[in-house]
């Protein structure tokens, strides 16, 4: 079954076509990498899936059903770093979000364990590293126990230790049954964690499938840049 099925999706801003015919199929239980150069339309695509922007045309199906607000309750997301209060700790943040969403407070300990913030749960966010802040953002996204988790550049700005920790968290979530869609332009990171990938260039899907199928002569980077060059869109 597909967790997310996107067909011929368009999003136009006047004459600018941010999305110009995107097709993606994300299978339940997999880690799916959404690749593309800056300005390719990745963030616009994710915001459209989340109902934050209205598509111009095309279709989005979630868990086998037409896209709806009710189904979005089963989707968690971290598109940008959420607003965090520096004087509050992780537990207080999660309690506030749980009450706003009507989520049982028992979920707090579960998500803290999932993102490995147990040792710093009562530390003020002002003293958190960037990696800890990202993990708290993911914990907030996980509160409602989503079937699909969408993450936009979750390793951006992290040091090697933070990247490794984030990779482990994402793998553990998938192992527990959560479908994960990750947007990134870091090919090496996607290669280490994703089951399949989709490449979006200039608002269109240029490739979807295995990493092996994307590689040119065994070289993943070469295959990616060939797609970009064929599309006539330079990486900015």
From TrEMBL:
Highest taxon above the source species: Bacteria
Residues in ABC transporter domain copies: 4-227
UniProt entry keywords in alphabetical sequence: ATP-binding, Nucleotide-binding, Transport
One Gene Ontology MF term: ATP binding
Statement: the UniProt record of this protein carries the keyword Transport: yes
Endpoints of the signal sequence: none
Pfam families per record: ABC_tran (PF00005)
InterPro entries: AAA+_ATPase, ABC_transporter-like_ATP-bd, P-loop_NTPase
Family under the similarity heading: Belongs to the ABC transporter superfamily.
Entry protein name: Lantibiotic ABC transporter ATP-binding protein
Source species: Actinoplanes ianthinogenes
């Amino acid at each position: 079954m597909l967790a997310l099925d996107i067909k011929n999706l368009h999003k136009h801003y006047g004459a600018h076509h941010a999305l110009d015919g995107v097709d993606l199929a994300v299978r339940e239980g997999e880690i799916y990498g959404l690749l593309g150069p800056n300005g390719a339309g990745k963030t616009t695509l994710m915001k459209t899936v989340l109902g934050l922007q209205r598509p111009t045309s095309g279709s989005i199906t979630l868990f086998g059903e037409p896209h709806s607000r009710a189904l979005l309750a089963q989707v968690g997301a971290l598109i940008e770093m959420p607003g965090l209060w520096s004087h509050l700790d992780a537990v207080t943040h999660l309690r506030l979000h749980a009450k706003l969403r009507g989520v049982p407070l028992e979920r707090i300990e579960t998500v803290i364990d999932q993102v490995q913030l147990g040792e710093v749960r009562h530390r003020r966010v002002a003293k958190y590293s960037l990696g800890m802040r990202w993990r708290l953002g993911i914990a907030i996204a996980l509160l409602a126990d989503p079937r699909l988790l969408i993450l936009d550049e979750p390793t951006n700005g992290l040091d090697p230790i933070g990247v490794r920790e984030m990779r482990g968290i994402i793998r553990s979530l998938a192992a527990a049954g959560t479908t994960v869609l990750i947007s990134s332009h870091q090919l090496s990171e996607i290669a280490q964690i994703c089951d399949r990938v989709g490449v979006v260039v200039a608002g269109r899907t240029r490739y979807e499938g295995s990493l092996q199928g994307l590689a040119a002569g065994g070289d993943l980077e070469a295959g990616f840049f060939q797609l970009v060059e064929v599309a006539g869109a330079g990486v900015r």
